[in-house]
């Protein structure tokens, strides 16, 4: 009971001498790229603090810039994935669709891409051609042109076959403003289909796991689905009724919802039973001790929508091929600001927090 | 999803919870032994469904948590060596030793790899004949057969570049230690389903008898846990102290005989330190003399590393069910999964980490009112 009676300061003094270390990260660790709290800390302390400006501080998937009469959406993303080819896509389709989606999440029409390639010495030319062909096809489908680029080659062992950075520009033509700080109590939370497909597909291809399943990455460009949703909101006479959209890539749906809840200073309550997860994904997650809510998606979006139009928007989403399994999974609340709670299938409640770093397979 | 959904059915869950409410007349303190059970309880909010008089306290059954600091330091010393490929189960990578974790060692150039099965090390050893492959063989009886199999195969197939850093712990001696403590509050146990799937539950019968504490060997899904609690409360209310098996769809009294034989060939029982608890006699496995050449402690000369644990952390009391994570002034403040100060915060299965991850760091949020328990 002595510990319980301690003043916080005393506790800190005592714990300060504890030989267990406090992580201070003299080096970058993999978790800094996980999309979880470590990533947030890295961005906040290393980058945001040095580049503060209003466009950046919005921390949306894309920056929105007023240039003359046009409102431009502008974004960039780097793609590193092992293996570079996987069921449902490859690093090339990811590089195009990922950036197209970041633009689309701001309600922008994607227009142009730039691409930079870092190639590892020894990469097979045929593999590179395959990747670039995929980018061409994905670009055509998304209606974007690749208008500028760059290539560098690094020594063998200094890269992992190929890294691709794509930068995209789009234009926001509607008088709308989608941003993570616009959510209000009562708003509904929508996801556009099965969560976790991409992450589990990649994991199943990794050496040492060799899960045999028919799962494919959900990699897809979502701008048409977004158009449908914005059209539905307009048709309801409430074009501002879609508050925010995000594509829940690294860190999954849980991380995305936590970020939005924090930015809007609202709480969220979601229902476990209403979240669409494929049996293959659930099975793999059970096996490995992972949670599908934290697994990456590459062709899904999460949207926060005003309650009066949520059903109509949902209907339109479900009519689109990329949104046929869309669901309302919960709602925004005025309570427990900044936190996402989940009603579990068995009737309990728990907090769905952001991950610290990478999700680790559990021992048993 | 077959084999899972039927054990998470909300209606059956509610009727079991109601059954417990009907049977229970007095307050009872029940310990779930296994970290996997703790995780499931907190993840699903099962404790919120129980009547206020049934208190679940969380046991020592998280192998990652109880691996002693000095063993972690030994692992880190080996993983830092050039020419070593250090292989581990995933959740050991973030466990801090005296100086950082395995992720940090990896970022400094150490070759640290996550394996899903100990036998993956054989493949890595074949692909890297010039390297030394070291497997961090931790766990309870559950992981012992697979770990033993690695040592067995390494010897049978003549691998000179494989060794194991062994830190195996056993459940029954820990339960005996908890029940022998003068501060003990635990009146009955949900026994560890996975452990008993390997070694059976004969060994638990003398424990129940000696301490007059009922033990129900229990699974990990919400229905398993609630049914285990119901069986236990029935025993407690009627004054019985028997070993019962809730998890009969998986295991029988003798466990898995071929697995037990393999464990016996490779390991022998020895004293073992538990992080947060200290030395418990006869509470672990070590490699038998015939397998000494595969003992990484000997091969890399790290046997002398002897790190003392900080006295301040209350995880030892949490592991014994004497206190709860909230009782610690550092919980959620100085001590978080990012900066764990002690055993129960280091793994997702540790009681403190589970409380933290699923929001139990809050004083009285809406979630506590659901079901009216706790």
Description:
- The complex is a heterodimer of chains A (364) and B (374).
- With 364 residues, chain A is an alpha+beta fold.
- Chain A folds into two domains: 115 residues, 60s Ribosomal Protein L30, Chain: A (2-Layer Sandwich), CATH 3.30.1330.10; 164 residues, Phosphoribosyl-aminoimidazole Synthetase, Chain A, domain 2 (Alpha-Beta Complex), CATH 3.90.650.10.
- Chain A is built from eleven helices and 14 strands.
- In chain A, strands 9-11-8-12-10-13-14 form a seven-stranded mixed sheet. A five-stranded mixed sheet of chain A has the order 1-2-7-5-6, covered by helices on one side.
- Chain A is globular.
- The two termini of chain A are 33 Å apart.
- Chain B has 374 residues and is an alpha/beta fold.
- A six-stranded mixed sheet of chain B has the order 4-3-5-6-11-10, with helices on both faces.
- The chains are: A alpha+beta (364), B alpha/beta (374).
- At the A-B interface, helix 2, helix 10 and strand 14 of A face helix 1, helix 2 and helix 5 of B.
Text of the CATH class of the largest domain in chain A? Alpha Beta
Subunit arrangement of the protein: heterodimer
> N-to-C terminal Cα separation of chain B, in Å?
31 Å
CA-atom Rg of chain A in angstroms:
21 Å
The residue ranges of chain B in which pLDDT falls below 50 over 5 or more consecutive positions are 363-374
- In percent terms, what proportion of residues of chain A is strand? 15-25%
Structural class of chain B: alpha/beta
Please, what is the average pLDDT of chain A?
A: 89
């Amino acid at each position: 009971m002595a510990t319980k009676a301690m003043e916080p300061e005393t506790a800190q003094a005592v714990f300060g001498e504890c030989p267990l270390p406090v992580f201070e990260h003299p080096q970058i660790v993999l978790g800094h790229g996980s999309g979880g709290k470590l990533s947030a800390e890295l961005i906040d302390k290393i980058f945001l603090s040095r580049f503060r400006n209003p466009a950046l501080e919005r921390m949306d998937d894309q920056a929105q810039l007023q240039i003359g009469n046009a409102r431009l959406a502008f974004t960039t993303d780097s793609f590193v994935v092992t293996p570079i080819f996987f069921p449902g896509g490859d690093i090339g389709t990811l590089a195009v669709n990922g950036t197209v989606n970041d633009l689309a999440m701001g309600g922008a029409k994607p227009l142009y891409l730039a691409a930079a390639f870092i190639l590892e010495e020894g990469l097979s030319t045929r593999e590179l051609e395959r990747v670039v062909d995929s980018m061409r096809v994905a670009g055509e489908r998304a209606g974007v042109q690749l208008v500028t680029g760059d290539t560098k080659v690094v020594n063998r062992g200094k890269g992992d076959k190929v890294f691709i950075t794509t930068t995209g520009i789009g234009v926001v033509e509607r008088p709308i403003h989608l941003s993570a700080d616009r959510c209000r109590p009562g708003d509904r939370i929508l996801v556009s289909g099965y969560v976790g497909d991409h992450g589990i597909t990649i994991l199943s291809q990794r050496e040492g796991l060799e899960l045999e399943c028919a799962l494919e990455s959900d990699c897809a460009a979502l701008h048409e689905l977004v158009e449908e949703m914005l059209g539905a909101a307009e048709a309801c006479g409430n074009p501002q009724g879609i508050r925010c959209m995000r594509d829940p890539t690294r860190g999954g749906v849980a991380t995305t919802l936590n970020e939005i809840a924090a930015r809007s200073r609202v709480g969220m309550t979601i229902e476990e039973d209403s979240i669409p997860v494929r049996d293959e994904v659930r099975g793999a997650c059970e096996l490995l001790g992972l949670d599908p809510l934290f697994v990456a998606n590459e062709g899904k979006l999460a949207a926060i929508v005003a309650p009066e139009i949520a059903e109509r928007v949902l209907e339109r989403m479900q009519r689109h091929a990329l949104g046929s399994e869309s669901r309302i999974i919960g709602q925004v609340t005025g309570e427990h600001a900044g936190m996402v709670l989940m009603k579990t299938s068995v009737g309990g409640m728990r907090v769905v927090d952001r991950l610290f770093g990478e999700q680790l397979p559990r021992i048993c | 999803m077959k084999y899972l959904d039927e054990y998470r059915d909300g209606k059956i869950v509610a009727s079991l919870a109601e059954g417990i409410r009907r049977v229970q007349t007095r307050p009872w303190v029940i310990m779930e032994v296994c970290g996997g059970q703790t995780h499931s309880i907190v993840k699903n909010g099962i404790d919120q469904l129980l009547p206020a008089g049934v208190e679940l306290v969380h046991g020592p059954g998280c192998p990652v948590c109880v691996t002693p600091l000095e063993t972690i330091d030994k692992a880190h010393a080996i993983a830092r060596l050039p020419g070593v490929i250090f292989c581990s189960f995933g959740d050991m990578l973030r466990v801090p030793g005296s100086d950082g974790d395995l992720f940090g060692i990896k970022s400094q150039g150490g070759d640290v790899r996550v394996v899903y099965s100990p036998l993956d090390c054989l493949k890595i050893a074949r692909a890297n004949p010039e390297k030394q492959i070291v497997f961090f063989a931790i766990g309870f009886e559950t992981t012992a057969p697979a770990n033993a199999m690695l040592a067995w195969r390494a010897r049978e197939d003549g691998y000179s570049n494989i060794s194991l850093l062994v830190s195996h712990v056993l459940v029954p001696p820990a339960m005996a230690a908890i029940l022998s403590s003068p501060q003990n509050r635990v009146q009955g146990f949900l026994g560890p389903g996975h452990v008993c799937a390997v070694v059976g539950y004969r060994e638990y019968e003398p424990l129940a008898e000696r301490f007059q504490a009922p033990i129900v060997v229990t699974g990990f899904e919400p229905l398993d846990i609630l049914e285990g609690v119901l069986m236990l409360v029935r025993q407690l209310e009627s004054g019985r102290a028997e070993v019962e098996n809730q998890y009969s769809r998986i295991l029988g009294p003798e466990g898995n005989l071929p697995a037990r034989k393999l464990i016996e060939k490779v390991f022998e029982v020895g004293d073992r330190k538990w992080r947060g608890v200290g030395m418990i006699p006869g509470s672990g496995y070590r490699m038998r003399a015939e397998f000494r050449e595969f003992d990484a402690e000997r091969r890399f000369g790290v046997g002398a590393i002897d790190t003392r644990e900080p006295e301040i952390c209350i995880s030892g009391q949490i592991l014994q069910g004497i206190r709860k994570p909230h009782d610690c002034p550092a919980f959620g403040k100085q001590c978080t999964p990012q900066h764990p100060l002690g055993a129960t915060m280091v793994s997702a299965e540790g009681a403190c980490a589970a409380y933290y991850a699923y929001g139990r760091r809050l004083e009285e949020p809406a979630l506590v009112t659901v079901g009216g328990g706790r």
